[in-house]
From TrEMBL:
Segments of skewed composition (Basic residues): 8-21
Segments of this protein annotated with the region Disordered: 1-31
InterPro entries reported for this sequence: TCF25/Rqc1 (IPR006994), TPR-like_helical_dom_sf (IPR011990)
Full protein name: Transcription factor 25
Source organism (scientific name): Antrostomus carolinensis
Lineage per the UniProt record: Eukaryota, Metazoa, Chordata, Craniata, Vertebrata
PANTHER family, A to Z: NULP1-RELATED, RIBOSOME QUALITY CONTROL COMPLEX SUBUNIT TCF25
CC per GO annotation: RQC complex
Pfam families associated with the record: Tcf25 (PF04910)
Length: 376
């Protein structure tokens, strides 16, 4: 299993030494950075997965809502678009001199953040039922006191009171979320995003040792008030990622939110996940989700899935690397599903044709199914 990796390792090390000599202590070359990144990703791929090394087989054997650690980092997605040097810049040397900080998956801590100290939040394992673990966040007495001060600050309608509270308690989660909303409304997107990342970091530092972001078998109950901050922080972070042009990373966070409570889906991310899948070109994931969940969740009765799934099949039919039989099968499914979608939601046709600048046929325009009556 690890043979191809071990054969690469000495070569990577030699390369690294050469560049260090050549550049006399300067940063590594671009392609070296990318080589090391790809090596780390390969090692991560082999950890805790099935014995097969072909990516297709591994992907199919994983649960639908399996979350990959590397896909939670927007830098990895941006590096794919723009290259390592454009994204990292001069970050690497500075990071080496930085004080030791805890390694986290949801966000990476920044030099500009205050030093982290325990906040008074803890995570407990409630029980394990049918292979699914149920967790909850708990607030200790000192955190509850800060929470009361926060509620007073909100009632005062003055954001400066929240700023003062954060100066005393820099990792109080609800204050970070609230101040982020204030910054977003004042068009300070950078600060708004930074505060959300800080809230996520604060919560991740309190995770229970067996709580797993990636397994898809850990549950949190949204109805419990202490858990809500985690759902909201993840959702707000997802929205910022989508605005930054990182749909693949946003999709991974969407899967994470859904995996925390797939039965109830308290934040209704099912209304969003298909859009992100199309944006990230993860057509296979979207069609697989539809196949696995349609029978018990009736996804075809949601207008977004009704139209996005045939679109995903259409895009799959355009992929030249697939066999002709696969492509024709995808074309047939796309045609059949778009017909069913238009029968179920006929009023969508006219606006769709308007957006595509297509003039509908007279029979369609006057038809009782698609005409003015259906619109009204």
């Amino acid at each position: 299993l690890f043979q191809p990796l071990s054969s690469h390792k000495p070569r990577k090390k030699k390369k690294k030494r050469k560049t260090k000599k050549a550049s006399s202590g300067e940063t590594l070359e671009d392609n070296d950075l990318e080589d090391i990144e790809s090596l780390l990703e390969k090692i991560e791929d082999t950890n805790g997965l099935s014995q097969q090394t072909q990516s297709g087989i591994i992907a199919d054997s994983r649960p639908l809502l399996y979350v990959e650690h590397r896909n939670l980092n927007p830098e990895n997605e941006l590096k794919r678009y723009f290259g390592a040097r454009a994204v990292l810049g001069d970050q690497r040397p500075r990071q080496r001199q930085r004080q030791y900080v805890r390694s986290t998956w949801l966000t990476s801590p920044k030099n500009t953040w205050p030093r982290y100290s325990k906040t008074g939040i803890a995570m407990q394992l409630l029980d394990t039922r049918r292979g699914v673990q149920h967790f909850t966040f708990e607030h200790h007495r000192e955190y509850q006191q800060v929470q009361f001060k926060f509620l007073d600050a909100v009632e005062s309608m003055d954001p400066n009171n929240i700023v003062l509270l954060l100066q005393m308690n820099p990792y109080h989660v609800d204050s970070l979320l609230q101040l982020s909303d204030v910054c977003r409304m004042q068009e300070d997107q950078e600060m708004a995003r930074d505060l959300i990342e800080r809230a996520l970091y604060s919560l991740e530092c309190t995770f229970h040792p067996v709580f797993s972001l990636t397994s898809g078998t850990c549950r949190l109950d949204y109805r419990r008030p202490e858990n809500r901050a985690f759902f909201l922080a993840l959702f707000k972070h997802l929205m910022f990622l989508e605005k930054r042009g990182c749909p693949r990373t946003a999709l991974e966070f969407c899967k994470l939110i859904l995996s925390l409570d797939p039965e109830n889906d308290p934040l209704c991310v099912l209304l969003l996940i298909d859009f992100l899948s199309l944006r990230a070109r993860e057509y296979t994931f979207l069609t697989r989700m539809f196949q696995e969940w349609e029978s018990h969740r009736n996804l075809s009765q949601l207008p977004n899935f009704a139209f996005s799934v045939p679109l995903a099949y259409f895009f799959l039919s355009q992929q030249e690397e697939r066999s002709e039989s696969e492509r024709s099968q995808a074309r047939e499914r796309a045609a059949r599903l778009i017909q069913l979608a238009l029968i179920m939601f006929p009023s969508v046709l006219t606006p769709l044709l308007d957006h595509c600048s297509v003039q509908p046929d007279a029979r369609v325009a006057s038809h009782s199914f698609f005409g003015l009556n259906a619109q009204i």
